[in-house]
Automatic annotation (TrEMBL):
UniProt name for this protein: Galactinol--sucrose galactosyltransferase
InterPro entries cross-referenced by the UniProt entry: GH, Glycosyl_hydrolases_36
Gene source species: Amborella trichopoda
Annotated keywords: Carbohydrate metabolism
Molecular function in Gene Ontology: galactinol-sucrose galactosyltransferase activity
Amino acid sequence: MVVTNGILEALGEELGGRVHLTNAYYSALNAAANKYFKGNGVSCSMQNSNDFLLLGTNQIAVARAGDDFWTEDPCGDPEGSYWLQGCHIVHCAYNSVWMGHVVLPDWDMFLSTHQRAHFHAAARAISGGPIYVSDRLGQHDLELLKKLVLPDSTLLRCVAHAQPTRDCLFINPLHPHGPPLKLWNINRCTGVVGAFSCDGGEWCRVERRFRRARHSPERAQERQTTACYTDVDVWRTDAPSKSFIALSHLAEKLTVLSAPDNKVPIGGAVYAAEVRGKANGVVVAEVRVRGTGEMCAYASKKPKRCSIDGRECEFGYEEEDGRVSVQLEWDRDKKIRALQYLIEAEDVKESYSVP
């Protein structure tokens, strides 16, 4: 993890100049990362003129996309621990629009015990970049971290970098009365849309810093917005289906957006899905997943039986929204689990899986 590259400007005067010193530094950094860390490294100092020469290394193209994460306002505003977090997410989101075509944007660390830790955790989850925290030793919100990382410490990252939705490209999410910031990303076969209330801060041209916005409430307020599958920009002209199943994470609500039509949307934890024919009057929907916790799926009728790796398991079914839930336990010996839903053929319209 590289955090001292800003010092190159000060040291370059008697060592051949900044460019010469940076070239030497960059070569040594690559050699050290390759020798001691198998090529893994993160250039995590916020970007300035020096850092743009250090966008990742030869082995890994990860670089910071915004300002540092601040736990509170460095100028002393007691409410800065709230409104300043929105500024950070806005920086990273809009910078990722162009930086994501050059490097994998890194949205910086955060504290899992911070007042807005869940806000930051959701942003990191959709960012597509690395996730890391700088908690003090022994001071962790483990329940929050378990939502981001699998028991073997691997991440279920989105396959691209997060970007603002089209209707947010030319708005100011920091405005006290403006709409929330919406971000989109994709998994293997599905998309993710996140909405973030970022209001409360503004850029002061006189003081040349971010501060609490004038006429702004002390803390970010709840905002309402709409989301559609076309918010996932790659689906505007080439959607994988004409129908979608939406899962609201906070509300834990499953919504059928249109009539099913033989497509199986797949989430980040799902590696493959297949619906096999009506042999013996039974349809078998098999989903291969990785992870632990509740696996949520949609079925138009209650399945007759569910199994994990060939063993029958308990499951729940909600008549109201067609939600089928199965609890997956972690198995360190099996990275990919096979989950099967058995449904009588005459009951079946289609079945859908969601993350």
